[in-house]
TrEMBL record:
It is a multi-pass membrane protein. It is found in: Cell membrane. It comes from Planobispora rosea. The lineage of its organism: Bacteria, Bacillati, Actinomycetota, Actinomycetes, Streptosporangiales. Keywords: Cell membrane, Membrane, Transmembrane, Transmembrane helix. This is Membrane protein. It holds the Pfam family MMPL.
Amino acid sequence: MAILLYRLGRSSFHRRGRVVAVWLLLLALLGGAAAAFSGSTSSEFKMPGTESQRAMTTLRQQFPQAGGATGTIVIASATAQKLTPDQVEPVVSQAAAVPGVLAAVDPFAARSISPDGRYALVQVQFSAKVTDLTDAQREAYENVGQGLEGLRVEPGGEPVAGGAPEVGSSEALGVLVAAVVLVVTFGSLVAAGMTMVNALVGVGAGMAGLFALTGVVELNSAAPTLALMLGLAVGIDYSLFITSRYRQFLAEGMDAREAAGRATGTAGSAVVFAGVTVIIALAGLSVVGIPFLTAMGLAAAATVAVAVAVALTLLPAVLGFAGERVLPRKHRAGQAESSRRAPREAFGFRWGRMVIRLRVPILLAGVLGLGALALPMQDMRLALPDAGTAAEDSPARRAYDLTSEGFGPGFNGRLIAVVTAADKEATTAAAARAAKLITGTEGVLAVAPPQLNASGTAALLAVIPTGGPTDAATEDAVHAIRDKVATITGADVSLTGVTAIGIDISEKLSDALPVYLLLVVGLSVLLLMLVFRSILVPIKAAAGFLLTVGATFGITVAVFQQGHLADLVGVDTPGPLVSFLPILLIGILFGLAMDYQVFLVSRMREDYVHGDTPQQATVNGLGHNARVVTAAALIMIAVFGGFVLMDDPIIKSIGFALAIGVFIDAFVVRMTLVPAVMSLLGRAAWWLPRGLDRALPNLDIEGESLTTAPATAEREHSMA
């Protein structure tokens, strides 16, 4: 692989004008496709095969009028007086006049008035799905009842909860911090700017292609932001790794074209491996069998693939234009003078020797410390986000809080029991029986009278739980209801609604989490065995990854669920973690962890193979790569941390968990625990049974085969 990438790097460097032109043309074409074909994203979560999803499908078939988006407008009296029909009527009329609204139900007719008479709920039914609502429709709905004297009116429900998270200044701050880190690392504005622009081109191409696909593929609203987050982070890091190696070869006296080829063949090999592991882990989310999670994983994986392609082709081409200007000016102008002075030993060498000297206490402190940080993970609860965790000043949150204030939290988590039977008589009897059983269930506040469809073959019952949508008591009530209605014969009774769907998705993801973790850990052991030709190094890497994941989960639970230091990251209301966060975090952190593992340990193996002692090889691996890995980790932390400043609770929690995970894995596990373990293992770290050694293919991540590449390249160049 190293030879192939070496030739690709030299070719891109030599034909730099064509390569840059092709990428700019591709970027323009994808941008045009995005402008022409992009569609809307969805905040809806679907789970095929679950009871709640089957019931939702039945509900939409038997009650077509319920197929569109639904909203709930909360009305509260601004005084201690009860609401009157005359006060409420203007709100109902305005809601009915919103374009696309089929009906707005008078709360006095529907008896949706609070016991004290000061609060009312107006149910609004749209003809179109929430994803098909226009901005004008959403705006008209949000303006219903605004400015009416003596009333507080808060429109809520699906029309105000949809839409993709807005990307703005908070993410730009992360990119700015990354740019500063690049300048400090390289000591050259040219090198820093070139690396950043290269990464932005890759992100632009990946995101444009993704938005072009939204016209034909349904994506969750968080998918583009996740793809942007990952594309930025890995795009900058991959370019950083190759540029750093290019500068190293230039400093050793190589000509620019050869340095570009060597950098692409060595650092580029590690980039390919790291990128492939991220792509496999993200694409592996499809094994869970959840469409929206599969789409998120594939979207992010595609963006990472583009970042790898850009780093291997566009970057060498841009290096051809930059030449030696990627080096600091003093190194370009005074190489002879600087070479006479003894270079100052890098901090990585001193850190490596200290870790080896104190390896036993460092290992104990590291393992015990990360284990302690993982303890809150025992209380981890998963749920889909609801309006109760939205930003306090958002329309959805205001409506949620006002509903809880007037009616109780259960009215925000209403359930729907769908009853189907052969005829009207059987449906009526089964619905009555279901209503009686559900009413006597613990955790249920009220059950509305059954509503039959026109043919009498289906009925629905609105069920109000005592707890909110993400409360543990509501989850228990859902299971208890399902157990009770399963005893009804002659009809099919199933439970659905946004709350029930969220519970089903969370449970399925919880069940899939151990299987996916085992898949990822097994994959890491296999891949690292191929790369390092060792048994113990992959096992050690997998163990370090488990420590990283455990500590990251524990800290995220402590902040987002338990509320410790929640104000520092802008969490208004602690609650369960978003249900797909753990499995998504495992997939992403796996690839990033392998990234740092390869860059650090490959140099250790290279020096060991060339005759260094295991301890010296460990020090060299850390000393030569600590600066680059530190810069790469800081860049990822900055990019992910920028997304913590967003209001969207899903993106905020993902950004926080990834930033914490990268910090722990890079600085605690890979740069501290890994060298400590490697020095303890000594020569045993590189042991591999002879039979297995012969059977495994040689991936040549370190680029050992490049020792003959210069002569080959010269012959090719002279023939050209």
